[in-house]
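Run Urease through structure prediction, thanks.
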Amino acid sequence: MLELRPNCEMCDCDLPPEATNARICSYECTFCASCVDTVLHNVCPNCAGGFVPRPIRPASARRPGTSRLHQSPGDKRRRLKHDIDNIKALVTATKDIPPEQR
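Sure, done. The structure for Urease is below.
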C-alpha cells in the first residue's frame, strides 16, 4: 500500500493526505510540486526517476475498510540524504532525458 508521507523531502513543507501538490516517484519519495518544478526539474534526487501527482486516499470509507481511517498516512518526516551540490549535479545531468529513458 502506498505510504502517504507527511512532508516534502526538500523544503519540509507539510503535505497532508489530501494535498493536491504532493508528487511521488516510483519509490514513493515525496516532494511538493514547487520543488519538483523549480528545483528538481522532474528528477528525483534519490533515484533519478520522474514524478507523478500523489493519489488522494479517501477520508471516508465509501467501500468497507478503504479510507484514511483504516489505512492511516505515514507520520515519519523525511529529509534528503544528498547535499544540494550533489542534487544540482544529478539534475543537470538528467533533466533533459525523459523519465521513461533514464
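The first strand starts at residue 22 and ends at 24.
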